[in-house]
Amino acid sequence: MRRPNPRVVGLVLIVAILGLVGVGAWWLQPQPLLPEADASLASTPDVTFHDAGSRLEWSPVAAPPTTGLIVYPGAKVPPAAYGPLAQAIAGQGYLVVIEAMPLNLAILGIGKADEAIAAHPGIRHWAIGGHSLGGSMAAQYAADHLDRLDGLVFWAAYAATDLSASRLSVLSTWGSLDAGAARMSGADARAAVPAGAAFVEIPGGNHEQMGYYTGQPNDPPATISRDDQQRSVAASTVELLHGLDAQP
After folding, report:
1. What predicted TM-score, i.e. pTM, was given to this entire model?
2. Could you report the per-residue pLDDT of 158-204, keeping only the tens digit for each?
3. How far apart are CA 241 and CA 238, in angstroms?
4. 44-245 maps to which CATH number?
């Protein structure tokens, strides 16, 4: 049997390594942001913005908030993509914190909510949530910290753990054209959360329009505007937070 040519073997190894490097670079490349995302990183007459380094924070100007929402971004999505949503929700009287994740992957930073909770002792009611992978990892955090949380919010996401026996107030909202809509609205998703959870489908919405970024793979085009989808997400999220705020 002839021995493989060392030069050929070397070339094959080089090609394989370059291929792995290319795949890794693609995974590490964050999704491009839209201009609205960058514009949201600023204070307005109604909302104060603060860059805390490891997280971005928006809080209402009118009065110190007592209810807050911690958001975990979707995979490969920079936290600023959810800035417009955070700004809109904060304008209704709530603290909104968006966590920055290692390599933009929430699975590598499930415990990041600890930092926000510790930094804001004045918040009486906390909800946690997120988009896509971020929502599933937020649910994982919630499962391990039920004593710290009152609410859970899924933006085009679903629980990867059983929370059906918890006391959490839960919202799940998604676009009807999202490729994963069946998983977000199906029997398994509903069985994993408390019976009183709110499930809100956004007609004509897709996955990417949960934030202000582009390049979401395999995402059908939405038939409603991004602004309209965002307004729906903000409204249903504020409704959940309003319910928490009314609790003793």
Report:
1. 0.89
2. 998 999 999 999 999 999 999 999 999 999 999 999 999 999 999 99
3. 5
4. 3.40.50.1820
Both tokens of 139, joined, read: 């649910």
Give the other-Cβ count within 10 Å of 200's Cβ: 16
- 82, 233 contact by CB (below 8 A): no
| Cβ-contact 127, 69 below 8 angstroms | yes
The pLDDT tens digits for 17-71 are 323 333 343 446 899 999 999 999 999 999 999 999 999 999 999 999 999 999 9
